[in-house]
Structures are given as C-alpha cells and as structure tokens.
Amino acid sequence: MSANVRIHDLPAQERPRERLAAHGADALSNPELIAILLRTGMKGVSAITIGQQLMAHFGTLEALARASLDDLRCFKGIGRDKAIALKAAFTLARKMAEELRFESPLLDTPERIAELLREHNRLHDVENFSIILLNTRRRLIRVEKISQGTLDTLLVHPREVFKHAIAANAAAIVLAHNHPSGDPTPSEADIKWTRDIIRAGQLLKIEVCDHVVLGRATTERPKDWCSLRELGYFYA
Questions:
Q1: What is the DSSP letter of 216?
Q2: pLDDT tens figures, 1-40
C-alpha cells in the first residue's frame, strides 16, 4: 500500500473498518487500528500513514500510550480531537488491564459459595433463591437474585434460572437458597427441583455445579450450609 493512499480510495475489502468487521480486530496492524481511531487523515496524508508514522516514532504501543497530548499534536494530521481520541483509547486499555489483574473469586467449592453468600442471606426470614454465574474457569461473573419465597416455599421455573446464564454467556452455574429455619438440610422439593434444573442445564450445555443451601450453624451442626452435590443428589 502506498504511504499516501487515502483510505476511501482503497477497495472496500482493504479499508480498516471493513476488514475489522469481516475478520476481527486481531487481523489489523497497529497502524490500521490507530487509523480507525483517527477516522480521517488530512490532505495528502492518510490516517494509516499517520498511524505508521506514530509507530515508527514511538516504537511500541506502550511508548505511544505514554505520549502527552502535546507530543501527539506534534505530528502532522493530529489535532486536539484526534490526540484526545488516542489518549482516551489507551486510557481505557489501561483501566481494563487493571481490572484483569484483580480476578473474580474462584468458586469451585461449596465452602466458597457459602462464604460469598453468607452475610447477604443471614437476616432473611423467607427463602431467597439466587444463582451464581461462573465462567469456564469457575470464577464469578455475578450473582443473580431470582426469587423470594414465603415461609419455606419457592417456585422457580428453569427459564428464570437459565435466561440469566445465557445472557451472561456463563459456562456454569451454582444454585443457592437459604432456609429461614436455620437447618440447611435439603427438602424433598429441593432435591426434585435441583434434578429438574440439572436436566435443563444438560440440554442447554450449561453445567449445574452444585446447589448450596444456607442455614445457621449450631453446636450440634457446625456447618451452616449443605451441598446437594456432596450429599450425592447430583448422581443417578
């Protein structure tokens, strides 16, 4: 590609935006991605050329990200608005990297599930049903409250459970609810309903990892939770 060819003079399949839409962002070079942020170049200089000049001068994306607005505006074709667009893009990338350094909690045991939900459920005097949405590494995506019952009765349809999992692109879920009586022992209704949800999850290819029932610890019962998987109710 000639350095001074304008983007709109290129065939559609060679324009950065069209290539990104067709092949994904990873198919583009750094100057092409910069050109998309700049949107347009200036007379005689394309946005891709400006991107190439920036990369040639700074050498790495890290060095470019550190450049000040004044540093960026030294380049022909980059005014205030284009410099701000570049700084905003690199700042978003930095903030995302900071978020990724603090991974969501690993929720691969009923103990960890109980620890996550214990304080939230402690003061409820009716049953509250939630689902914990997990990614492929069993790390928390988020907790969704599905239903609040009366006394000891909860009626939750599988579609209410899985619509949130599908929307979040969750790979797996954990079911959880509290027993206001304090005894976390699952009822026959809990067991039957759990097996219904497991079957629905199998059809949707979303694993149901466990169903954790929360209660209160006593001298005779030191654990304040119960895992239906550990009790063997997840197996035929």
A1: -
A2: 444 555 555 655 568 888 888 889 889 999 999 999 998 7
* Residue 122, domain member (yes or no): yes
d(CA 124, CA 129): 11
Q: In this prediction, what percent of the chain has a pLDDT beyond 70?
A: 86
Task: Decide if 75 is inside a domain.
Answer: yes
DSSP 32-88: HHHHHHH---BTTB-HHHHHHHHHHHH-SHHHHHH--HHHHHTSTT--HHHHHHHHH
**Residue ending a domain, choose from 66, 101, 136:** 101
**Residue 132 included in any domain:** yes
In this structure, the answer to whether residues 121 and 216 fall within a common structural domain is: yes
Pull the structure tokens for residue 159.
């579609």
Question: pTM for this one?
Answer: 0.59
Same domain, 211 and 124: yes
Phi, psi for residue 134 in degrees, rounded to 5:
-125, 150
Angle at 96 between CA 92 and CA 99, to 5 degrees: 140
pLDDT digits (tens, 9 = 90+) for 131-183: 999 999 999 999 999 888 754 445 688 998 999 999 999 999 999 999 988 99
Which has the closest alpha carbon to 136: 209, 192, 73, 80?
209
